Amino acid sequence: MHDAIDTTFSPLQNHLLVALPEEVQTRIFPFLELEKLELGQVIYEAGGKLAYVHFPVDAIVSLLYVMESGASAEISVVGNEGLIGVALFMGGESTSSRAVVQSAGHAYRLKGSMLTEEFNRHGKLLELMLRYTQSLITQMAQTAVCNRHHSIDQQLCRWLLLSLDRLPDNHLTMPQELIANMLGVRREGVTEAAGKLQKLGVIDYHRGHITVLDRSKLEELSCECYDVVKTETDRLLPYALPKKSA
Amino acid sequence: MHDAIDTTFSPLQNHLLVALPEEVQTRIFPFLELEKLELGQVIYEAGGKLAYVHFPVDAIVSLLYVMESGASAEISVVGNEGLIGVALFMGGESTSSRAVVQSAGHAYRLKGSMLTEEFNRHGKLLELMLRYTQSLITQMAQTAVCNRHHSIDQQLCRWLLLSLDRLPDNHLTMPQELIANMLGVRREGVTEAAGKLQKLGVIDYHRGHITVLDRSKLEELSCECYDVVKTETDRLLPYALPKKSA
DNA sequence: AAAGTTCTGTGCGCTAGCGAACACACTACT
DNA sequence: AGTAGTGTGTTCGCTAGCGCACAGAACTTT
C-alpha cells in the first residue's frame, strides 16, 4: 500500500517522546519495544492492570467504553501525539475503559515500572505527561457534550477529522460497523451520514476504505467540538504542532 | 435545619485536605481562605486563567460546558471529596468548562501559586491530586457514555445520587430548570422524570426543594453509571470512605 | 465459476426527546 | 388583598435516531 511504510520506525515519531530532553531519552529509549498493532486489537481491557504504556507512531487507538448491554462509546482518540495508559502514572493503574486499535500501525511500548520510575524523577517527563493528560480530559469533556447535543452527521465529521489529524495520509480503513461502535450509534446511522458526505464529494467510501477528499468542507460540516479540542490540544502541547522537531 | 451547620468550618472537612500529612497541612493551611458559595455562582469561566483552587466543604460545584448555541451539559460534579481547578497543576492553567455552584455552601480557596509550589515538592499532595484527577477522568468518561445511551429518567437518578453523596443531608435546593441545564435536556423532560420519581415515592419535590426519600430505590432506577463512578472513586480515593481519618 | 462472507443501502414502524405555547400553581412583595 | 415573579405541569405536532428485516454489491475462497 505504501512504499515507505516498512522502513524502520523511530521513537522520535511520537510527539511526546521527541519532546523529552536528551538525557531522559537516553535513559528510556533502550527499553522501548516496537510493537505492531492490528485493527481491532485490544491493548488493554477495562479494569485490567496496566503493564505497559504505549506510544503510537503511526497507529490510532481509541479509548472505548463498553456497557453491560454491549453498547459502546468512544471516550477519546490517541495517535502519535500522545500515549495510552495514563492511569499508570496517575496512580490508578487501571481504567474503566478499553483501548482498541482503530487504525493499524505501530507503537512503542514501555514497561509500566520503567515509566513510573522516570515519572518519579519529577522532571520534564512528568510535566509532559500531565499536560497530555489534560488534553485528554478536554477531549473527553467535549465528547460528553457532543454526545448530548450533536447529530450523527456532525459527529461523524468530528470523528473523521480527529482521526485524520493522527493519520499519515488521508486514508482510513474501517467498516461502518466499527465507526458506529465508536460513535455509539447504529450502523445504519453511519451509512446514512457517510452517504451524505459521499454525495457531497467530501469523502470516498468503499467497503471500509475511506478517503477524505475535501477536508475544509468536513470542518465546515462538523460541530464546534472538533475545533475546541484541536485548539486546546495545540495550546497544551505546542511541541506537537510542527511535523517533527528532531 | 442543622444545629451544627453554622459552627465554624474546618479544612479537615475536605477529604483531600484531611488526607495530607501534617507537615504539608501546617505549610498550606494558614493560606486557606474560607469562602461562601452561592447557588449559581460562577467560580471560574471557561478559558479563564485560574487564580485559585477551591476545596469544597459543604458546597457542590458542577463543571459545566456551555456551547455556542447556549446549550449546556455537566461534565462532572465536585464536592468535599475533591477540588476545583485541576488544570492549575496539570499545566494548562485554564479549562474549556465553567465551574458553577450547584448547591450553596462553603469552600476553602488557595492561591494557585501556593498550590503549585507545594505540588512541585512532589510529595503526598502531588500523589493525592493526581489520584483525584483520575477519578474525575472516570466521571467524565462515564458522563460521555451516559449521555449517549441512557434515558433522562436514568440520568436524573444518577445525577441525584452523585449529588446526594456530596451533601450533608438528603435535601437539595435546585429548580428543575437548572437540573435540565446540568443534564443538557429540556426542563419539561426533567419535570416528567421527576414526576415519575415523585409518584413512586422516591423523592419529594416542591418548588426547587428536593428531598430524597428512598435512596435504594433511586439506585435501582439509575443506570449502571452511578455505580461505576462510585466504585472507581472509592477505589482511587480510599481515604474518602470513612467520615474522617484525622 | 460457484459458493460463502463481509460490507453497504434501504425501507418501515416506533419512541424518546425536542420546541413552543400556555395554564396553573405557590411565594413574595407592597 | 392584589400583583408580579418564579417554578411546575401538560398538551401537541415534529424529527432524529432506533430496532428489525432484507436485498444487493463486492470481495474471498475453493
TrEMBL record, chains A, B:
Keyword flag RNA-binding: no
A Pfam family assignment: cNMP_binding
Gene3D superfamilies for the chain: Jelly Rolls
A GO molecular function held by the record: DNA-binding transcription factor activity
Residues annotated as domain HTH crp-type: 150-216
Keyword terms, alphabetized: DNA-binding, Transcription, Transcription regulation
The organism's place on the tree of life at top rank: Bacteria
GO cellular component terms given for this protein: cytosol
Cited SMART domains: cNMP (SM00100), HTH_CRP (SM00419)
Record's keyword annotation contains Hydrolase: no
PANTHER family hit by this protein: CRP FAMILY TRANSCRIPTIONAL REGULATORY PROTEIN, HTH-TYPE TRANSCRIPTIONAL REGULATOR ARCR
Annotated protein name in UniProt: Crp/Fnr family transcriptional regulator
